[in-house]
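Let us practice reading a record.
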Amino acid sequence: MRRLLEAGLLGLMALPSLPALAQDYDPIAAAAAANASLKNKPGDAPQLGLSHLRNNVTATQLPLEWDVKAGKNIKFSARLGSQTYASPVVANGKVFVGTNNSAGFVKRFPSKVDLGCLVAYDAETGKFLWQHSNEKLPTGRVNDWEQLGICSSPVVSGDKLWYISNRDELCCLDTEGFLDNENDGPFKEEPNQNKDEADVIWKLDLMKLGASPHNASSCSITVIGDTLLATSSNGVDEGHKKVAQVQAPVFLAIDKNTGKVLWSDGSSGANIMHGTWSSPCFGELGGIPQAIFAGGDGWLYSFDIRGDNGKAKLLWKFDCNPKDSVYKLERATKNPLIGTPVIYNGLVYIGVGEDPEHGEGNGHLWCIDPTKTGDVSPTLVFNSKDPNTPIAPKRVQSLEKDKGDFERDNPNSALVWHYAGSDTKKFESTMHRTLASAAIKNNLLFIADQSGLFHCLDAKTGQPHWTHDMLAASWSTALIAGDHVFIADVDGEVSIFKVSAEKELVAEVQLETPVFTTPVCANGILYVATFNTLYAIQEGASFKGDAATSGGGE
């Protein structure tokens, strides 16, 4: 641990040799270019993190105040299920949100029936359009925890969307449902063609490929050309002692038109600590089209998206945990990756996290140079029996000194900087576990941790500028909109700051119910999914009635 902390501090003092970084990098233009091939409107937010770069940044100036009870700046509110963990996406006049079935929108499934539901709403009015209903897995909570609903956000292009259901099925749907009076695609097994139900084009059952999701299937897929990138949510068994399906594919590239698997990889294998709940990103880095996946084993992996004759082609891998850290169910110092990696100006950013039910813990935030190859971790582990050959990673603890293990600095390290906090002896100066991704603009990086601290750092050096204690846990990724950054917490409060190296808290606005999702901006409107309500917030809008209780968009 000490060696790694020292490496992190060195990263703050003197950057290693890096790929050429643009001095005038514009993340908004980068996202627009990344989404150019998608058949959506320019101002849409068609996937988690806006684009396949996953940097949640927009130029739009959004309202700095609203009142859900008085209706001030509230365009609409729409009822969701009773638990909502999937962030909304907005494309071509529709909002899509994953939730559970407590709203009971579809007659054949009353609200008491537990389902995973992907719900489509009108983006202007909040009117319910249609729902994709997914019955729970018969294996129970080990694979599909009750009432969680859909935990993944879809990606949308034109009249199609793709998402992973609670049944670990990758589904391609027609965004019009049956409102267009057509049953599109080769899949014709829908139970009916009612206007309020989903039109399925094709499905790929990842469990039939061998995957065993732990508690929940959670991956917000992305699309590049004709290729989808997804994880299988593979995880441990009910006893939490071992991976249920060691040989299962974990990282996948899939043909978006047919559902055919182009290549897959299971590198995290037996070393998955808990589950695989992150989402992939993609970027052209070092001249190579890189598909980047965050593993449940705590490693970040990059593959050439083109594959190698139907097989995965690993480019590099990076261990995001100290080698002497230990995984256990509570008070672990070794953690999986749950947040989504983010690409900004040629570098990759990722933080470690864990299922919040397993408590709080210290975390690590990394900045990585993606132009190297091989094992690019900060250090390598050796054993005294063969001191010149690095040993393989281990699930519980990679460095066991009592067994003769020792570590050396890795001459091939891609570490740019590492942030564990400016003073880990103080709560307000510690980087804790995070479920969030970084949001970056003007070389200022913003990220919330699970313990409720909001951090602002220099994206180039990792030098901390400031932290803010929200006094509530946060599961959300920040949204940078114009000159302000918005961050939500589980107390239902949205804190708004200036995008600045000096802390300037502008406002704290209540949404009345907890937020476990990420706010998004599309076409000048702020969309936030609370635990049970979808809000559209727009300057000058006025909602008649109590938007917090009416669910007025139904």
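A brief commentary: The chain has a mean pLDDT of 95.
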